[in-house]
Amino acid sequence: MASITAKPFRLALLQLGSLTSSKSQNISVARAAVLEASKITPKPNLIVLPEIWNSPYAVSAFREYSEKVPKVGSKWNEVEEGETVRAMREMARDNGVWLIGGSIPQKDEQTDQIFNTCTVYDPDGTLVAIHQKVHLFDIDIPGRQTFKESDTLTGGKSLTTFDTPFGKIGLGICYDIRFPEMATIAARQGCVAMIYPAAFNTTTGPMHWTLLQRARAVDNQIYVAMCSPARHPEASYQAYGHSMVVNPLGDVLVEASHEPTTIYADIDVDLLNTTRKNLPVTIQRRFDVYPNIAEKFL
Ligand SMILES: NC(=O)CC(=O)C(=O)O
């Protein structure tokens, strides 16, 4: 598992601003940002949207904004789906890019449960992966930040990776990054990067946003990226911003401020493999002393 087979690729993180309570306006904002990022030279191969970008990030809003997400593999006009899913298919296909569609509230019609769900599209607009946020953001830092996603949301039950022509990618959503097992399992499955649509806040962002990404990157010798919405002074939840990409050495390659912007990073697989060669922890694990948590996924 020391080295990884992948190709260099360019990543774009869209730190969307001007998000409002209008879903259709938010879709227009995302559509315009994907179009603009796709015009950059060299063109990004993989574009990422932030967590919950089509709805306010509020437990009281998730059900109202939720929509149907079809099954992995579904293509155009094959299935009934929500307007945001349809728009993301178009964004990927019209711009010829892979798209990690941040996350949106998803309604499961059968169970009536709501999930915080990331969908991924290939450049034909085919839905290739779905990740439902596994660890719900239930925290209480008195006087500073209280949030209880579990008031409305149900946690996902599986881990998610997907294959692209430039390598395997692992997915998590925001709070998922605090649980190191997910990134470790993805790395041992051969992922070149863990990518997390996210929305930390102005309390937990300064504490842990950078530290967590650098930790996941160094522990697993992979790239790590988090894509946040921009800060919005009128929103009930103040997103931290600071979308970021960290390399396998733990260096911050690029970081946004809290304003609306797009950041780009070139993923260098040689650097990943050189890091693993020079610091060979991936082949020095002592599974005779402690268990391999990834075993059942390999
Ligand atoms: N919003 C989240 O899911 C997580 C977060 O803000 C944090 O972990 O801090």
TrEMBL record:
GO cellular component: mitochondrion
Alphabetical list of CDD domains matching this protein: nit
An MF annotation (GO) of this entry: omega-amidase activity
Keyword Cytoplasm attached: no
A UniProt-annotated Pfam family: CN_hydrolase
Domain of life per record: Eukaryota
Annotated keywords: Hydrolase
Any GO BP annotation: glutamine metabolic process
Ranges where the CN hydrolase domain occurs: 9-269
Signal peptide: none
Gene3D superfamilies: Carbon-nitrogen hydrolase (3.60.110.10)
InterPro entries for this protein: C-N_Hydrolase, C-N_Hydrolase_sf, Nit1/2_C-N_Hydrolase, UPF0012_CS
UniProt protein name: Hydrolase
Native source organism of the sequence: Kwoniella bestiolae CBS 10118
